[in-house]
């Protein structure tokens, strides 16, 4: 009858005798390396943990400080893509440039104002001369007119014009007039028409 030892083969012998010694030594070395550190090491580790927590807190505060500027990045990117630039100048520089431009433009503006005043005075003198001329014409034409016109600022009435035209026709139709008299009548008629036109222009300018 086979014994128990004959049923199970003998363990395989190692070719390296020192391997078993190393295996038996490894647990002892691991056990020695996992020994509880001293209190000095623990206090140093606590300081390291506290420093790490302070760094993390500062990093968190920095991220929160950068967040308002970073969250607007898409809009700023669109602005820079459109090449829109803004030049901000200090107030003293703007004031200085403004005074320089005002000093350079003041002589030109003064000359334009003087020219405008000269033109206004010239127009005023021309208007006064035209009014004086109108008064002279009215005083010259007043004796030839029968009476005051029916309406103010109007020419002769239709009846007065008919009488004047009839008188001119009668004078032209007379055969006893000499050539010089006819010529004089034509000159007077032309002068009258010219004065009437000038009077109408002056009345229109005064209105």
Automatic annotation (TrEMBL):
GO cellular component: DASH complex; spindle microtubule
GO biological process: attachment of spindle microtubules to kinetochore
Locations listed in the record: Chromosome, Centromere, Kinetochore; Cytoplasm, Cytoskeleton, Spindle; Nucleus
Alphabetic keyword roster: Centromere, Chromosome, Coiled coil, Cytoplasm, Cytoskeleton, Kinetochore, Nucleus
Coiled-coil intervals, chain numbering: 178-205
Family statement drawn from the similarity comment of this UniProt entry: Belongs to the DASH complex SPC19 family.
Annotated PANTHER family: DASH COMPLEX SUBUNIT SPC19 (PTHR28262:SF1)
Protein name, as recorded: DASH complex subunit SPC19
